[in-house]
Amino acid sequence: MQAEDLLTPAKTDEYFMEQALKEARTAYEEGEVPVGAVVVINNKIIARGYNQVEKLNDPTAHAEMIALTSAFSFLGSKYVPDATLYVTVEPCLMCAGALYWSKIGRIVWGASDEKNGHQHITGTINPFHQKASVTTGILKEPCAQLMKEFFKARRS
């Protein structure tokens, strides 16, 4: 541990979820489904991502996928066992698979996704790596509210 680390207080799950929410708001402003993600190692954000499905004309351009790809590039590694992914909405089955293969150490999400989340499809089966820990419900209300506002505006 370096001296500067002793002076910097540890950031909370809420802090990092706020950072993911900033990414989600960028997606919202660009007309994308508002999901944002950040990858954190040692209390530092090493990668960010937000949904860019429409922008890139790519159904795989989810926030988690973009953040993971950026993290792999930053680290020069295909595995991130010491990392935590913060994402505003429960990962879909595709993103859960990518998280499994990344061997990420921890996954944290805000709002559940009753329609497209991995739990809706897999039920009680855990799709993540066996060593990964999962935390849910961090800033659940603002994460869910952003999604509700987005889809309400699209139906108007």
Summarize the structure.
The protein is α/β, with parallel strands linked by helices.
Walk me through the structure.
This protein is α/β, with parallel strands linked by helices. 45% of the residues lie in helices and 19% in strands. The protein has helices at 3-7, 13-29, 53-56, 63-75, 93-102, 118-122, 140-155, and strands spanning 36-41, 44-50, 84-89, 106-111, 133-136. It has a five-stranded mixed β-sheet with strand order 2-1-3-4-5.
Question: How much of the sequence is in beta strands?
Answer: 15-25%
Shape: globular
Q: What is the string of SSEs from the N terminus onward?
A: HHEEHHEHEHEH
As residue ranges, the low-confidence spans are none
* Average residue pLDDT: 90
Distance between the termini: 53 Å
Strand count: 5
Annotation field: number of helices:
7
Class from secondary-structure proportions: alpha/beta
> What topology, given as strand order, has the largest sheet?
2-1-3-4-5
In angstroms, what is the radius of gyration? 15 Å
For this entry, give a set of tags.
globular; 5-stranded mixed sheet; 156 residues; single chain; 7 helices; alpha/beta
Summarize the helices and strands and which ones pair or pack.
Layout: H1 3-7, H2 13-29, E1 36-41, E2 44-50, H3 53-56, H4 63-75, E3 84-89, H5 93-102, E4 106-111, H6 118-122, E5 133-136, H7 140-155
Parallel strand pairs: 3-4, 4-5
Antiparallel strand pairs: 1-2, 1-3
